[in-house]
Design a protein that fits this description.
Helix content is about 15%, strand content about 35%. The chain is an alpha+beta fold. The strands form five sheets. Strands 3, 5, 6, 8, 11, 12, 13 and 15 form an eight-stranded antiparallel sheet that branches. Helix 1 packs antiparallel against helix 2. The longest helix has 18 residues. The chain is elongated and about 85 Å long.
Length: about 500
């Protein structure tokens, strides 16, 4: 059993890694035009408009049915892909209910698997009908990869389930986040909105950025902001929470379930560089290097050595580093540009647990990386530059322990000279890395390069590394996560003889 993620209230505006989203189209052109002519005024207009929209009740749920596109043609599985099939998998048939004939996609008894749309979706409203039998268990996937590990973790799954019947049939006790509508293992849905088995239910799922909302039979049962999830165990186990796009589908678990009237409304996104998404703040303002400093030259590039400096030694070393930064790092057309001749760039404060977004670009044979907590590194390089590089960017290059792999799961780099995007989650000592929307590092320990006998520092700076190549960065955003501090191991008393 697995479930999908759902979310809270709608926001009139939503950010993406590269800008903002304006879901109410009537305001879209006005706001975009204002930004083009006056970037400062743009922010003011956005804030004002969001208040106006909130007051007028602008809601994506008010879209009429004629604005939705069907995902099911009523007679075939065209546009769908079945992965990991079980038994008879899925089929298409007509069912008659109270004299009304409906074309349905059904998960066969003893069958199932992952039935996913060929197309990927980012922000959307999904509407569909479904009908359960006693103990039926299925799931609704969204922003899911086509394949990989469990789609409830590497993607997202909303539970589709007769929970009471399942517990009785299987003599099991479900967790709150396993009942119908719950974001599996993450957020529980309210109960009591399901109709009796054998009757049709209507469900609407709205996913706008990190805000996920589920309505069942006109009742809101799940209202979740993914940015509010701070449990380290959940964040480590569910990298799919970070996904911006992916497939929609049904995750069958050997039980008969029917789905009908499946349709979707995609929500367009307006992208503006260097404007942080909701819940994030910009580490780079798009204008200058405020908030950044030069990295001290060795041995003081080592945070352990740097911490041992006296205040006077630190001032002198930092002044030299900042002069080096000014000479070789520039802001050009809203991008941080490096000339290939100086040292690395360092954020001017330390961070603990966070989600980090970074756009980057290199040239042929380019080599760079992102230091997390002052420690190397999420790798950036040209995959075509030799056998070593062929694994692609995004790996934790300086990991040496076999239990903590250094290579990424796949090559996800864009063509050299194009922009790439990292989405990095650093929680406790573990890291998820997405490169261009693909999961390339899953819940891997980042080793302490500076002292391998010790775990990674609990706090540290974000650094933009270089190896003497031209580099460009933009859209650098961070979302700090207030995870609870891990409990120290319990002390054991020695038994007296």
């Amino acid at each position: 059993m697995e479930a999908i993620k759902n979310h809270s209230h709608f926001s009139a505006l939503r950010g993406t890694a590269g800008g903002i989203v304006l879901p109410c189209p009537v305001h879209h052109n006005i706001l975009t035009m204002m930004f083009i002519f006056n970037g400062r005024l743009f922010r003011q207009v956005v804030l004002l408009s969001s208040l106006l929209l909130a007051g007028t009740g602008c809601s994506l749920m008010n879209y009429s049915e004629n604005e939705f596109e069907p995902l099911f043609d009523g007679h075939s599985l065209k546009g769908w892909v079945l992965n990991n099939p079980r038994g008879d998998g899925y089929g298409v048939t007509n069912v008659v209910t109270e004299g009304v004939t409906n074309a349905v996609i059904f998960c066969a008894k003893g069958g199932g698997g992952n039935l996913l749309t060929e197309k990927e979706y980012g922000d959307f409203i999904l509407r569909f009908d479904f009908r359960l039998r006693d103990g039926s268990n299925n799931g609704l996937a969204f922003r899911s990869p086509m394949s990989g590990g469990s789609l409830a973790y590497d993607g997202n799954e909303l539970q589709v389930l007769d929970g009471v019947g399942y517990e009785q049939i299987h003599n099991a006790t479900l967790q709150p986040s396993q009942f119908h509508g719950s974001l599996y293992g993450v957020a529980p849905a309210k109960r009591g909105a399901l109709k009796p088995n054998g009757q049709w239910n209507h469900q609407e799922v709205t996913a706008i950025g990190r805000q996920i909302k589920v309505r069942l039979n006109s009742r809101t049962i799940l209202d979740v902001d993914i940015n509010d999830i701070t449990d380290p165990k959940v964040l480590k186990k569910h990298p799919g929470l970070l996904r911006e796009r992916g497939h929609i589908g049904f995750l069958g678990h050997n039980d008969y379930v029917e789905f009908a009237n499946i349709r979707i409304k995609e929500i367009p996104q307006a992208i503006v560089n260097n404007i942080p998404p909701s819940g994030f703040r910009a580490l780079f303002n798009g204008k200058n290097l405020k908030g950044w400093r030069g990295l001290m030259k060795g041995p003081n590039n080592n945070p352990i050595k740097r911490a041992a400096l006296s205040s006077s030694e630190r001032r002198v070393a930092q002044a030299e580093a900042d002069a080096n930064m000014t000479a070789h790092w520039k802001v050009v057309d809203g991008e941080i540009a490096f000339d290939g001749k100086g040292r690395s760039l360092q954020a001017d404060r330390d961070y603990r647990d966070y989600e980090l977004l970074v756009d980057w670009k290199i040239l042929e044979k380019g080599d760079s990386g992102i230091y997390l907590r002052g420690t190397p590194q999420v790798q950036i390089w040209d995959p075509r530059d030799g056998e070593r590089n062929a694994v692609g960017s995004g790996g934790l290059f300086n990991n040496k322990d076999e239990k903590n792999p250094s290579t990424p799961l796949k090559v996800a780099d864009h063509i050299v000279g194009s922009w790439n995007r990292f989405r990095i989650l650093m929680v406790e000592d573990r890291v998820h890395v997405f490169l261009n929307g693909e999961l390339v590092v899953r819940n891997t320990v980042l080793e302490n390069y500076w002292d391998r006998k010790q775990p990674i520092f609990r706090t540290g700076s974000v650094e933009l590394q270089n190896h003497g190549n031209n580099l460009w960065f933009r859209n650098i955003y961070i979302r700090e996560i207030n995870t609870p501090e891990p409990k120290p191991p319990a002390k054991t008393k020695k038994l007296s003889k």
